[in-house]
Amino acid sequence: MLSNKWQVTDARGGQLGVLKSRLTLFSKKYTYDTDGRGSYEIVSPAFSREYDISDGSGAVARFEQVNGWFSSGAFLLNNRCEDLDSYELVAVILGMHAIQKRQRSAANHAIT
What we know:
Blueprint: E1 5-9, E2 15-22, E3 27-34, E4 39-45, E5 50-55, E6 58-65, E7 75-79, H1 86-111
Antiparallel strand pairs: 1-2, 2-3, 3-4, 4-5, 5-6, 6-7
């Protein structure tokens, strides 16, 4: 339940890839490993709400969180990737948001 991983599946339940959170001090980093289509890195500077998704050749997509701090997650996606469709990237973004919520919840429980 408190895992730093998120599995992305297709409509039939087949796995498309796995999103993993990476521990960093001054940025937010995630890796999305697809099954047979490559690996992507998702990076955002600390305290930023903008994220870049890149493969080995450079940035392929960008998204930003556009909601307020105390409202539910809303994101704006700009997808220029030929290998990942927007529906798959939406699932990746939802996974990243869920991992962040889990980490914040765990940190809040550790403090109290």
